[in-house]
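By way of example, what follows is a protein record of this kind.
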Amino acid sequence: MVHGLKKINKEAFDILVILSKLAHKKGARLYLIGGSVRDIILGTNSNIDLDIVVEDDAISFAEHAASHFKCEIKKHETFRTATVFVPNHKVDFATARNEEYKKPGALPTVSVSHLKDDMARRDFTINTMAVDLNEKTFGELIDICGGQKDLKSKVLRALHDASFTDDATRILRGIRFENRFGFKFESHTLKLAKDAIKKRALLNIHPHRLYDEMKLILDEPDPVKCLKRVDDICGFDFLSNEIKFDKDDVLLLRRIAKVLKTYRAKILDKRKITEWLVYFSVLTYKLPKRTLSSMLKLYGFKKGEELILLSINKHLKAMAKLKKLSTPSKIFKILDLFSYEAILFFLAYYYEDKNIAGNIQLFLEELSGIKVMVRGSDLIRLNIVPVRIYGKLLEALLYAKIDKRLKDKSAEISEIMKIYKKLGIQ
């Protein structure tokens, strides 16, 4: 496995070598574990996360490592974990531990233990493998749960029959792994997942954790496939029993994927957008407003995210008025009120209507971000009074600039003088 470790980038490999030497001097035992090892074997990413299990006090060792690298450390005393921010790399240290679930869905009670117990507490066999980082056995693969075999067979296998009742978020995590790696739930594991769903296991999970899992699902490379799989395995009752997901929603998701791909570069040049929220809107745009508002608060959506989802829910049907608008400024007046996330959703929803979609595309490609160059100081220099009308004048100028395609500041000044004269203010 030493050869396998060398598949990662040299900086990360050198960090592991240094940590091994530090552990030897300190008398601690270190292991690279979980997704890090999985990704090394798959060869999917040379810039792997460095997740380290310590058979000792992880925080104490992390402090030692941070001192050596002269870098920042963030400690989490409750879980006996720490993160060390080595230049260009984040290294997570966790104390080898055992977990006990006192009731389904609850956060586990954690106790310090050994590597074997730490492996046994994980979700799937493919995430149990470890690479020994101790000096004399550096690079040896430790696989006591058959993870390498399941990795080759491309199956997700739960470690024990209570896995999904203990923590039902593992079902959603498994769906992400299926999508990302092209794996499938092993038949008995899929049965366990569906049995847990029948027992409403996802409803035992704190809503904020479900928010985190849905966000991760929708950040996957193919969120459309992920959402279809969530619907197949568990549906969306764990979010709201009023969500009705159907084949039209699948088509809408595919149009969203197409729209995002088309406009990604153009939109990101102007403003970073939250793409996962556009996909999530497919689950919420049909909900009653009161249901949606309650759901968003319960699951801990951020205020800005709430506003976007509520605006889509409230104004989607009103976008039909774009069908009859004739001037660019009228299109601008309507769409400039909304976030890019909402506008892209509107475009996907009305994609088959050439007039509505065409007007939204015009806004995205030509009108969005247009601003006037004339400022209040220019109006003062032009002896335009009173000052209280400046806002009205500049707004009228903006719409004139959009419709008349004014190209430079001199054209804007000429236009605003015309607007001012029309007002007839002396």
